[in-house]
């Protein structure tokens, strides 16, 4: 009721009655008011309510009125047709914006491919001029961040089997060096993130990545999928000596014989993910190279002195 005001019941210049009704009660939201059994009149500018005993009316300005004021008394055609036209205009504008966005996206993809080709050319020239290994490694990391210039897609191959075979080779080729730099082992979740980052817009589903990694061993690729007893899956260098990994873990534990190590401690010292550090400690325990101590402070591992002195 805040917008209602008392006004003259007579129509002003340019005001015309659109509809009227009798015996109308006014409500303030859900609440009844004392304004009941009145005559309601809808004009092109106002909504008027008047009881027969009153000379003046309660009125509120309509919206087809606000439009007239805003446009300098220019008459605006409304109704269902006007609404449909307005919706159509908005849809056309949205369609044009989407089309422009996809055009920009295509141009960006084209430029990205050119940049990757240029980077590979420069990388080859760097090798020919015997630039330091550190510079070459750094440049290769830049190259990986730019992405794969011709990623494997389903459209290129007639069957899902052929698609996953080629995808396995692409993943192994793109991530062999990063896996080696990570100590020879990389969590499957990180593999998924890295390969999608390298592919840019041609994103892979988790299922496609898992199926491709499952094929690595049969295709005799430099990387292969390994599953720990806990179910954690990693991609590792093919032929990675698990005994050596256990031995290296035991050597790190030996340096902390007094206070032991948690998975977080090993992760920080060896620079590996927390989940992978925990798997290394559990694997060392299964091989009798480590023992555990569970307390209120958490789970810690110690070198197995019983085994080493037996």
Descriptive labels:
single chain, alpha+beta, Arc Repressor Mutant, subunit A, phosphatidylinositol-3-phosphate binding, five-stranded antiparallel sheet, 310 residues, 48% helix, PH-domain like, 12 strands, three-stranded antiparallel sheet, elongated, 4 domains
Structure commentary:
By secondary structure, this protein is α+β, with helices and mostly antiparallel strands. It folds into 4 domains: 5-75, Pleckstrin-homology domain (PH domain)/Phosphotyrosine-binding domain (PTB) (PH-domain like, Roll), CATH 2.30.29.30; 77-146, no CATH class; 152-234, Arc Repressor Mutant, subunit A; 242-309, Winged helix-like DNA-binding domain superfamily/Winged helix DNA-binding domain (Arc Repressor Mutant, subunit A), CATH 1.10.10.10. It has 10 helices and 12 strands. The strands form 4 sheets. Strands 1-7-6-5-2 form a 5-stranded antiparallel sheet, with no helix packed on it. Strands 8-10-9 form a 3-stranded antiparallel sheet. Strands 3-4 form a two-stranded antiparallel sheet. A hairpin with a 5-residue loop joins β9 and β10 (233-237). α2 (80-128) runs antiparallel to α3 and α8 (263-270) packs across α9 (274-286). It is elongated. The protein starts with a strand and ends with a helix. The model is unreliable at 67-78 (pLDDT under 50).
């Amino acid at each position: 009721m805040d917008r209602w005001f008392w006004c003259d019941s007579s129509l002003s210049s340019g005001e015309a009655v659109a509809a009227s009704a009798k015996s109308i009660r006014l409500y303030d939201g859900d609440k009844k008011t004392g304004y009941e059994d009145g005559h309601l009149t809808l004009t092109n500018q106002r909504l008027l309510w008047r009881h027969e005993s009153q000379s003046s009316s309660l009125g509120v300005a309509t919206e087809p009125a606000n439009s007239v004021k805003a446009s300098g008394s220019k008459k605006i055609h409304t109704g269902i047709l006007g609404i449909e036209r307005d919706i159509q205009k908005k849809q056309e504008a949205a369609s044009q914006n989407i089309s422009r966005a996809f055009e920009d996206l295509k141009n960006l993809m084209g430029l990205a491919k050119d940049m990757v080709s240029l980077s590979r050319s420069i990388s080859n020239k760097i090798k020919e001029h015997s630039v330091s290994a550190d510079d070459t490694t750094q440049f290769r990391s830049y190259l990986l961040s730019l992405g794969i210039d011709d990623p494997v897609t389903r459209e290129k191959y007639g069957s899902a089997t052929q698609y996953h075979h080629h995808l396995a080779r692409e993943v192994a080729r793109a991530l062999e060096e990063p896996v080696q730099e990570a100590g020879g082992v990389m969590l499957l979740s990180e593999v998924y993130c890295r390969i999608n980052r390298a592919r840019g817009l041609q994103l892979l589903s988790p299922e496609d990545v898992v199926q491709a990694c499952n094929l690595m061993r049969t295709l005799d690729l430099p990387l292969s999928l390994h599953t720990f007893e806990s179910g954690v899956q990693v991609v590792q260098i093919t032929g990675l000596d698990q005994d050596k990994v256990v031995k290296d873990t035991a050597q790190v534990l030996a340096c902390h014989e007094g206070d032991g190590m948690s998975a977080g401690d090993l992760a920080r010292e060896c620079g590996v993910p927390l989940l992978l550090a925990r798997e290394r400690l559990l694997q060392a325990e299964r091989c009798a190279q480590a023992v555990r101590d569970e307390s209120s402070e958490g789970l810690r591992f110690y070198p197995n002195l019983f085994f080493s002195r037996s």
